[in-house]
Write a structure and sequence with these properties.
homodimer, alpha/beta, Ribosomal Protein L25, Chain P, Alpha/beta knot, seven-stranded parallel β-sheet, five-stranded mixed β-sheet, 6 helices
């Protein structure tokens, strides 16, 4: 059996003692039934992965003692995933898959035809943490606050390429073009972009269009496919 | 608004009258509230997509009259997806995504460490139909019966390449190798292959290994990523 993996905020290193919050203590000692002396793997997104031993196990608290580093810190390439929120299960799915596939940052974007007015950022961040724990990584992508697409474009960082998965985006480069990092992937919303949004996107020099085959993909499928293509062609799969 | 799309078994063509079964009649007239004269799009996996008009709308029956072909028949490349069944929602997800991404055939496979003893083939086939209706395609992949991996390999068709997404598969070609169609993708089960299974796979000359990056992907993520890579590199996305 593989070790239980836990994301913590605390610094990790030789001899570090890591206190648990009540939810973590409940998970390790209540759900997973670990006791003093049991081994777990910890990561915090900065210091790699560490084997740690349960030093104290209480109902609502506990202490873990770092023993040895089990994996170096490994950050994914500087790729953002931008997508318009979907129904709950599919939004969770996109966050989970973006974490597994190695996005650096996940940005929910409000477009003209997006229904969501708000997201539960904390819940989505917890989904990313859980996915990172599951997939054996050492990095948790940040889930950003919901932002309007026009606002996002107005503040777009110099030098970051933007690849848009949208069939109807004209004007932008028509060839498949996997820009190198820093980069971002923007998945078209279920209802499509508005004409004004397409115009605004096509006018920007950072924008290229990403083609995802002859069939119409649902937004969450397009997200996974776009992340895969980019990682295989310009990311860390090569 | 785009047309309601419906998969039927009946032949489609100029002047064809297509009878509806009770479930289809309920969907069109009860759920979607269509009445006589309304337009829908039909496909049967053989004759392309056809615009049809509601000629008779009853509670448990109805007739549609084909008007004109709206799209030619378009079959995906000859690619099979082989995977070990997961929990219900994730198995449904794999079938839905394989349909969207253009697999020709979906084969649930029982491996030594697969928990599922049986699948609901009819339910998974219905999931594939629904996905094809949603994604605007004209083709529905066949969902095969659950078959044991050793049995499947014993009957493996001559000339069909088999790409295996499994980190620990030794002996097979170590380079990324996207074989051309006819081909199949085999996704490693959640519990991994047994040593005996790995040995049997590695011994076969049709088998190559497909690498899916440095992070550990869940089985359903690996399925989507593998389908994407193959379609983009050797399938109909190019």
């Amino acid at each position: 059996m593989s070790l239980v993996r836990l994301h913590v905020e605390h610094p990790l290193g030789e001899g570090q003692i890591v206190p648990l919050d009540p939810a973590q203590a409940h998970y390790l000692f209540g759900v997973m039934r670990l006791g003093a002396g049991a081994e777990v793997e910890l990561f915090n997104g900065r210091d790699g992965a560490w084997r740690a031993e349960v030093a104290e196990a209480g109902k609502k608290r506990g202490l873990l003692a770092c023993r040895a580093r089990s994996a170096p810190q490994r950050d994914p390439p500087d790729l953002w995933l931008l997508f318009a929120p979907l129904k709950k299960a599919r939004t969770d799915f996109v966050v989970e898959k973006a974490t597994e596939l190695g996005a650096r940052r996940i940005c929910p974007v409000q477009t003209e035809f997006t229904n969501a007015e708000r997201i539960r950022r904390d819940r989505l961040q917890a989904t990313a943490v859980e996915a990172a724990e599951q997939c054996g990584g050492t990095f948790v992508p940040e889930v950003a606050e919901l932002v309007r697409l026009d606002r996002l474009l107005a503040d777009w960082p110099e030098g970051r390429a933007l690849m848009v998965a949208d069939e109807a985006l004209a004007g932008a480069a028509s060839e498949q073009d996997l820009a190198s990092a820093p980069a971002a992937l923007l998945i078209g919303p279920e209802g499509g972009f508005s004409d004004a949004e397409r115009g605004r996107l096509a006018a920007r020099h950072e924008v290229t269009r990403l083609r995802l085959g002859p069939r119409i993909l649902r937004a969450e499928t397009a997200a996974v496919a776009a992340l895969t293509l980019w990682q295989a062609g310009a990311g860390d799969w090569t």
